[in-house]
Amino acid sequence: MTTEATESVARPAAQVFAFIADVRNDPRWHTDVLQAKLAEGETVRAGSVFEIRTKPVMGISGGTVTVSAYDPPRIVFDIRMGKLTPRTTFTVVPDGDGCRVTRRIEVEPQGLLRVMAPFMGGKLRSSNAGFLASLKRVLESEADRAQN
Predict the structure, then answer these.
(1) Which residues, 6+ apart, have CB-to-CB distance to 86 below 8 Å?
(2) Given this model, what pLDDT does residue 148 score?
(3) The predicted structure's pLDDT at residue 125
(4) Which of 35, 68, 102, 141 is least enclosed by beta carbons within 10 angstroms?
(5) CB atoms < 10 A from the CB of 91, how many?
């Protein structure tokens, strides 16, 4: 399954990329992520691993997010949450005074989830768009507060 969504954000592309690249910011905008910490070091780069706690549909679970590619304007995260191993790619490009953020999710359902895949596609698409809308709200409201 693959889905992609794009959102315009009224913030400079470099700032938005840096915010997205640091998964420790996810609890501020990604409604399923409760906590994220960098496993070691302080600098985010290819190979960095974040430990996360999430609260998706049922219960709280943990997993890891590995930065598999860090090539601005593109960053790729390989996620491990039990049997789910989605790959999320963000591309952040300048657009006027702000930027355009594209979030692409690729996931290969395993086991019983394969049977449910046709029903999960719509939920995945709407969640992806919702997460980007939340990212936009957070980044733009922080910019508004900084200006006031």
Answers:
(1) 79, 105, 106, 107
(2) 46
(3) 75
(4) 141
(5) 20
pLDDT for position 59? 66
Contacts of residue 135, Cβ cutoff 8 Å, sequence gap at least 6: 7, 9, 20, 29, 30, 101
Mean pLDDT of the chain: 88
Helices 112-147, 13-21: inter-axial angle, 10-degree rounding: 130
Sheet holding 61-71, edge to edge: 2-9, 98-106, 87-95, 74-80, 61-71, 49-54, 33-38
Q: For 26-49, what is each residue's pLDDT tens digit?
A: 999 998 999 999 999 999 999 999
Three state DSSP letters for the chain: CEEEEEEEECCCHHHHHHHHHCHHHHHHHCCCEEEEEECCCCCCCCCCEEEEEECCCCCCEEEEEEEEEEECCEEEEEEEECCECCEEEEEEEEECCEEEEEEEEECCCCCHHHHHHHHHHHHHHHHHHHHHHHHHHHHHHHHHHHHC
* Rg, the chain, Cα only: 15
* pLDDT digit string, tens, across residues 74-106: 999 999 988 788 999 999 999 999 999 999 999
